[in-house]
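Good day; I would like, with your permission, to put a structural problem before you. A protein sequence and the C-alpha cells that stand for its backbone fold form the material at issue. Thank you for your consideration; the sequence and its C-alpha cells are set out here:
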Amino acid sequence: MDILRSVYQVAGFIVLISLGVAVLEGYFYYHFKYYARSWFFPAALTVFPLLALAGYYGVTWEHPLRVWAYFVAAEALVCAAFRNIVKGRNTLPYLLLAPAFVGLALLLVYPFMFEVYLSFHDLKLTTIMMWKNTGHIPFVGLRQYWNVFTTSPLSEVSFWALVGRTLVWTFSNVFFHVLGGFALALLLNNSIRFKGVYRTLLVIPWAMPQVVAVLAMRGEFHATNGFVNIVLGRIAAAFPFLAHLGVGPVQWLSDYPLLTCTIINVWLGIPFMMVVILGGLQSISSSYYDAADIDGASYFQKLRYITVPLIRPVLMPALTLGTVWTFNNINVIYLVTGQAGGTEQADILVSALYKAAFTYNRYSYSAAFAIVVFAMLFFISVFYLHGFDAAKDER
C-alpha cells in the first residue's frame, strides 16, 4: 500500500505540473495570438486578474482589493509589452522557453527579491513572532547594511578580517588550481602511454560527490591516525635533524584549520582546471609549434608566446567560475571544521553568513550580508569577463 500511495503521489504531482504548464502555455498563447485585436486589453485585464485572484484566495483572504490591483497593474504591463515590443514574433521559441523561464523566476528571482526585502527590515528571534502573527516586520532602512560593515557576524572575527581571509583563501586556491591544472594538462598533452587511465584517475576527486571527497580527506588529517601525520612522523623518525626543525605530526584540524581546508580544496579543484586547460591545449594547431621549432624557439619561449596567449580565452571563463565557486565554497569549511558550530579560525564570508543566519538567527542581517557578498562577486565577475573580452580581441 505504501508503494501504491507513493506512485499515486508522484502521478498526482506530474498531473499537477502538466496542468500548470498547460495553463501557462495558454496564457502566453493568448498574448502572442491576439495582441493586435481591439478586445485584447479589456479581455486580458478582466479575466486574468480574476483568475489570479481566485488562486490567491486559495492561499489567504487578506487584502483582496489590493492584491487585485497588483494583478491588474502587472497584467497591463504584460499586455503593453506584447502589443508594443513582442508583437507576436518568435512565438514557438518563447512558448517552449516559457515554462523553464517561469520556473527559474520562481526559484531564483522571488527568493532574491524577498532577500532584498528582508535586508531593509529587522527579522530575528525577537521579531519573528510579530511577522508570523501580523505579517509585518520592523522597517530599519539601511541599518542592516551599516551593521554588516561595523559589527562582526561571529563572536571572534570581524567583518574586515573575514574579507581579508576570504580574499587570501580565494586567491591561494585559484592560484594553485590553475598552476596544478596547467602542469598536469601539459603532461597529459604529450604522447604518453596510458594517457586515458591517468586522466581518469586524476579526474576522480572532482567527479565524486564533494561530501564524500571532503570527509575522506578530512580523515587523512586526523591527529593520530591520519595518513599525513603518519608520513610526517616517519620522516621525523628517519631524519632526526628534521624533527629538531619542527617536522612531525601536527594538530591540523585544531591548530591549522584554514590551511587544512585550503589543501583539501586545492586537491578537489585541480582536476577541473586540468580538464579545461587540456581542452584548450588540444585546440591549438601544431603548426604554431612547428614554425617556432624552425625559428629555434626553446620550450619556455613556446610556452610563453604560443601556449599561454592561445589558451587565455579558454582559461578566463574557467578562472571566473573557479573564483566564484571558491569564494562561495562553504562545503569544505563546513565539513572540515565541525559543521555549523565549528571553529571560527577557518571561517570565510559565506561560512560566517551561514552561522549568522542559522546559528545566531540574525535573518535580516544575514540577508544584507548576502547582498554585500553578491555585490562583491558581481564586480569580481565583471573584472574577469572584461579580461575575457580582451583575451578574445587579442586572439
